[in-house]
Design a protein that fits this description.
The complex is a heterotrimer of chains A (298), B (423) and C (306).
Chain A lengths: L1 H38 L4 H5 L14 H8 L2 H32 L5 H11 L5 H12 L21 H5 L6 H12 L3 H9 L4 H12 L1 H16 L3 H7 L8 H7 L10 H31 L6
Chain B lengths: L1 H16 L12 E7 L3 H17 L3 E7 L5 H10 L6 E5 L3 H6 L3 E2 L3 H10 L2 H6 L1 E2 L2 E2 L2 E13 H6 L9 H11 L1 E2 L5 E6 L5 H14 L17 H15 L17 E7 L3 H8 L3 H4 E4 L10 E11 L5 H11 L10 H9 L2 E2 L2 H6 L7 H10 L2 E3 L6 H17 L4 H16 L4
Parallel strand pairs in B: 1-2, 1-3, 9-10, 12-14
Antiparallel strand pairs in B: 3-12, 4-12, 5-6, 7-10, 7-11, 7-12, 7-13, 8-9
Helix pairs in contact in B: 2-14, 9-17, 10-17, 17-18
Chain C lengths: L11 H5 L5 H27 L2 E2 L7 E2 L3 H9 L1 H33 L4 H9 L6 H11 L6 H8 L14 H26 L3 H9 L4 H12 L1 H16 L3 H6 L13 H10 L4 H28 L6
Helix pairs in contact in C: 3-14, 4-8, 4-11, 5-8, 8-11, 11-14, 13-14
């Protein structure tokens, strides 16, 4: 009897411990956001006071609206959404097509190609930063360039420069191949007997069946691209019209050097992360499936 | 016929798809892009002038592009590589050798050159000149001096700023206050995190000690001179004696949390907005402390330059001259008006005469310029790279991880090697 | 179907849609991309790394000079290399155990959707916002962190201003950013472990701690290795957070300058494109070696995905 009660008490204690750990962790996750949210409400005078008070006495709610009138937030938001969605679409298309070919066809060089896809993932992105920049600059016949790539700006300062280098993801090809491997070959053979072309098989039969995989990969790509800064900043430095939210906030930091304007900067941060939070509250379940699917087999 | 139509439409599609500057296809209106490191608010007086100019010149559209000071050189260089440079940029004079050597800058037409030489002081024209070639129209002039908080000094029992560095050290020690957690809340003296927060201060103190940071020919440094070593060792003492720390930065001056710092005059507008009516009663200016010799300090300047690939060079120079000449009987030119509101100084003789420079804050800076005590920062090769290197070594001395002689010997070796690359 | 009996496809479209040609069409965009944005850049950067080039005037061949300078002369490169390793190892050493522990708690708790949303927040916040949010939190005198420590009578570290701990702060922020993702990966790994193991252990009278260390951890090995490798590669080439946090300067005494950031400064601020390319190659070579070594471990650990 006593032993049973002991185990039960222990179990309760460990359950308690779990929730304590989770709650502390959650507070640590949320506290910095809370700090930003509060910070955005302080008056310029409070920011300059000595010592500055933590709690705003006269909350400046309008700072959250001023962000839209005093910063090109709308433009940034459009650019972020446009480039992120385009890249996501392109990567999904190329990943699905290549993954399908590698999973469902036998041809010479297939294994070599698949191993190359795996190997390519090991090359860090910064290795490409410099050469791709100049390849886009000297791209023949683009942006006023002649055949030799001289004379114009190439693809620089264009959406193409932001998007094109991200048209393919090696990881995505790998992941989509895993998804397609799961489809039975009989399905395709039956379609072939019915006279379907390979394209119809791909678009009308195979693709709908891996839709969950596509959604998960899509969300994965979306998060990555939404947060991409280094590349986009490098190619849009002189094109404010093309800058995305993080790039715009970083490059316009000169507007916030004055301590009195820091509340506005914190408001801008809050506004910059709101859209993606909304998107994620809806889509999170797919994302988890994508994180785990195919990547780990215990 | 059909071939050329195809070609044309192809080009149009390309241009549209790559979102190039609209100027390439809208021929009737010429767009002039002006890049500066000033933010939108600081630019306001100039932006107003742009609109006025557009009204008077229907064929011209002026676009303003801002880049943070820390990114500015990078922005010019990358835009240049991309062939999408702004037409006009306001550049820091030390960037000029690199830009000029790469063929980035256009030389002003002869009549503009003559006008510049007449309308600007010789010292500032010099800052925009490299090897005898004048590259642009001088704009903002920044001078370093010792800036101090009169109230904090008074509270510590001092009613006059320090004249020597030893005095400064003692005074700063009395001003510094730590909070309960042992962090310096109010520092007697402050530096800052940017390259110039360390390097410009160091140069200013070298000039105050009567030594130029670089040799006459621009191929070597004087960092290992006894004066330079002594300056650095005394700076480091402020850190090791707990008088200042990396926590305490020049921005604290406007927050009333710093006693003294060697800072440039362009901070005036921040002080005015922070202290309002109390500005002149709070902030004081004095010569950079030395060991008692003649006063000396550093000044640096910016100038308007036109890109050599600009399709609107003639229009750009014309616009710049208009911006730098008083219009409609106003006392100040457009550029002068903006600099004045910023609390900055101008190299333009008539602008400087018409600026509000009579307040107690600005007078010492103007005097330093007019007396020749402020020496123009030399335009050396790869200056921004070298200054980053130098900052790295200065920080080592501050932190006590390197002795001043060792650090300066290393800095000298590294920077001399870079200076030798100059073509 | 034998070759002889195959009906002749009359149309080009039919030929393109055949089993022999279609896979190549599916692969065509990727292959074209691989040539223009993978192979060409690698060759191009390799060539550039043997030149002195400011990108405004033609490149000059200098042989191995750039590599020699980086490896033997430049005092900054090795410092940044050390910072890079410290960051990559540190973020794993701290982040992975934390993620495992949290995942263990998470996988057996209620309200998973709520926990998930909270732990995800940092991950979906763009890195510039992360940097600035923490910049305010970690302010030495008036930030939330040191104010809170002050309430408990604790000291106030110079999180981002003290060169000795600035990189550690960056690691803490990075771990904070990544925790949600790693926690979810581990909780997925945990859910794959069969309940019967636990039941058997409990019948044998094993304590909660024994179960965790003797059963859960070993069975979680494949996930752990996967997370280790992906995080390590990502960590070695990461620099967006350091850039934004330090305003591009790389921290006090370059304490948060990792090699990637240094390369970026050298390339785009100093316009030493050749030297920067050589740096990229040196670091990439190191990453490749470490990754291959890890992959061996990975395979031995029983993870077959790669």
């Amino acid at each position: 009897m006593a032993m049973v009660r002991d185990t039960r008490a222990m179990a309760t204690a460990s359950t308690m411990a779990k929730y304590v750990v989770l709650t502390i962790g959650a507070l640590l996750m949320l506290a910095p956001f809370f700090d930003m949210f509060i910070g955005a409400l302080r008056t310029p005078a409070e920011r300059l006071a000595m010592p500055p008070p933590y709690w705003p006495s006269d909350p400046q709610w309008q700072n959250y609206l001023r962000v839209f009138t005093e910063l090109p937030m709308g433009r940034w938001l459009f650019n972020s959404l446009y480039t992120t969605f385009t890249i996501t679409f392109l990567q999904l298309l190329t990943s699905a097509m290549a993954g399908f070919a590698l999973a469902k066809y036998r041809f010479r060089g297939r294994d070599f190609l698949f191993r190359s896809v795996l190997g390519a993932q090991m090359f860090p992105f910064f290795l490409f930063l410099i050469p791709v920049f100049f390849i886009l600059r000297y791209f023949p016949l683009a942006g006023g360039n002649d055949l030799l790539g001289e004379g114009g700006a190439g693809f620089l300062n264009s959406y193409t420069a932001i998007i094109l280098p991200f048209a393919v993801t090696w990881y995505g090809i790998f992941l989509m191949r895993q998804f397609f491997m799961g489809l039975p070959d009989e399905l395709m053979d039956a379609a072939r007997l019915d006279g379907c072309s390979e394209f119809r098989i791909f678009f009308q039969i195979a693709l709908p069946l891996v839709l969950p995989g596509l959604v998960t990969l899509g969300i994965f790509i979306f998060v990555y691209q939404w947060n991409e800064v280094i590349w986009t900043m490098t190619v849009t430095r002189t094109a404010p019209d093309l800058q995305t939210i993080p790039v715009g906030i970083y490059l316009l930091r000169g507007a916030f050097v004055d301590q009195g304007t820091q509340s506005l900067q914190q408001a801008a941060l809050a506004v910059s992360i709101a859209p993606v939070i909304v998107i994620f509250l809806f889509l999170q379940r797919y994302y988890i499936r994508g994180l785990t699917a195919g990547a780990v087999k215990g | 016929m059909s071939v050329s139509w195809k070609k044309g439409s192809f080009a149009a599609v390309l241009a549209a798809s790559t979102a190039l500057t609209s100027a390439t296809w809208a021929q009737d209106v010429k767009t002039i892009t002006i890049a500066t490191h000033y933010n939108e608010e600081q630019m306001a007086p100039l932006t107003e002038c742009f609109r006025a100019y557009e009204t008077g010149h229907p064929g011209i559209k002026i676009v303003f592009q801002q880049a943070a000071y820390g990114d500015f050189l990078q922005t010019i260089l990358t835009s240049r590589v991309g062939g999408t440079s702004p037409d006009i940029y306001n550049i820091y004079s030390i960037w000029a050798p690199q830009l000029a050597a790469a063929g980035t800058l256009a030389t002003p037409p002869a009549e503009i050159q003559d006008w510049i030489k007449g309308a600007y002081g010789a010292g500032t024209v010099g800052a925009a000149t490299i090897n005898g070639t004048l590259w642009g129209i001088p704009t903002e002039l920044s001078v370093y001096d010792l800036i101090y908080n009169k109230k904090l000094l008074a509270a510590a029992g001092f009613n006059a700023p320090p004249k020597t560095w030893d005095e400064l050290h003692d005074m700063a020690a009395k001003i510094t206050k730590k909070n309960d957690q042992g962090v310096i809340e109010t520092a007697g003296y402050v530096y800052g995190p940017t390259v110039s927060n360390a390097v410009h201060v160091f140069y200013s103190q070298m000039y105050a000690a009567g030594v130029s940071p670089y040799t006459e020919d621009g191929k070597g440094t004087n960092f290992t001179s006894p004066e330079a070593i002594k300056i650095l060792e005394r700076q480091a003492a402020l850190f090791s004696d707990g008088i200042t720390s990396n926590t305490n930065v020049v921005d604290d001056m406007a927050g009333g949390k710093a006693g003294m710092a060697i800072m440039a005059n362009w901070n005036k507008s921040d002080f005015v907005s922070a202290f309002g009516d109390e500005f002149e009663n709070t902030i004081g200016v004095a010569p950079v402390p030395n060991d008692g010799g003649a006063p000396g300090t550093m000044l640096y300047s910016f100038f308007w330059a036109v890109d050599s690939t600009s399709k609107a060079q003639a229009e750009s120079w014309e616009l710049l001259k208009w911006l730098d000449t008083p219009q409609d009987g106003k006392p100040l030119s457009c550029t002068g008006d903006m600099l004045n509101k910023l609390g900055a100084l101008s190299g333009n003789i008539s602008d400087l005469a018409a600026m509000d420079v009579k307040d107690s804050f600005t007078v010492p800076f103007v005097e330093a310029v007019q007396s020749g005590a402020a020496k123009s920062q030399p335009n050396t090769w790869q200056a921004s790279e070298n200054e980053r290197t130098l900052r790295g070594y200065i920080e080592q001395v501050w932190a006590g991880t390197m002795s001043a002689p060792d650090a300066m010997a290393a800095a000298d070796a590294e920077i001399t090697a870079v200076l030798a690359e100059q073509p | 179907m034998s070759k002889r009996n195959r009906p002749r496809r009359a149309s080009l479209i039919g030929w393109l849609g055949s089993k022999q040609v279609a896979p190549w069409i599916f692969l065509a965009p990727t292959l074209a991309f691989a040539v223009v944005f993978f192979l060409l850049p690698l060759v191009y950067a390799f060539y550039i790394s043997f030149t002195k080039w400011d990108s405004l005037t033609p490149p000059k061949w200098v042989g191995l000079d750039n590599y020699k300078y980086i490896l033997t002369v430049d005092p900054v490169f090795w410092k940044t290399f050390g910072n890079t390793l410290y960051f990559a190892f540190g973020s794993i050493a701290l982040g992975v155990p934390l993620a495992v522990g949290l995942a263990y708690a998470f996988s057996k708790s209620r309200w998973q959707g709520l926990w998930r949303s909270i732990y995800w927040l940092p991950m979906i916040t763009n890195v510039v916002a992360v940097a600035y949010i923490w910049y305010f939190v970690l302010d030495d005198r008036f930030g939330l962190m040191n104010r809170t420590l002050g309430l408990f009578g604790l000291g106030a570290p110079g999180w981002l201003t003290n060169p000795k701990i600035a990189m550690t702060s960056v690691i803490l922020i990075f771990v904070w950013m990544q925790l949600g993702q790693n926690m979810l990966l581990f909780s997925a790994g945990l859910s794959d472990i069969d309940e019967s193991y636990y039941e058997a252990a409990r019948l044998d009278g094993a304590s909660e701690g024994q179960v965790f260390f003797k059963i859960t951890l070993p069975l979680l090995m494949p996930t752990t290795l996967f997370v280790l490798i992906t995080n390590f590669i990502a960590g070695l080439s990461y620099f967006a957070l350091m850039l934004a946090l330090s305003d591009g300067t790389g921290g006090p005494m370059r304490s948060t300058t990792v090699t990637g950031l240094y390369m970026y400064q050298v390339a785009f601020s100093d316009l030493r494109i050749g030297r920067a390319s050589a740096m990229a190659y040196v670091l990439a070579a190191v990453i490749l070696v470490i990754t291959l070594a890890q992959l061996r471990l990975f395979r031995r650990g029983g993870v077959e995905a790669y």
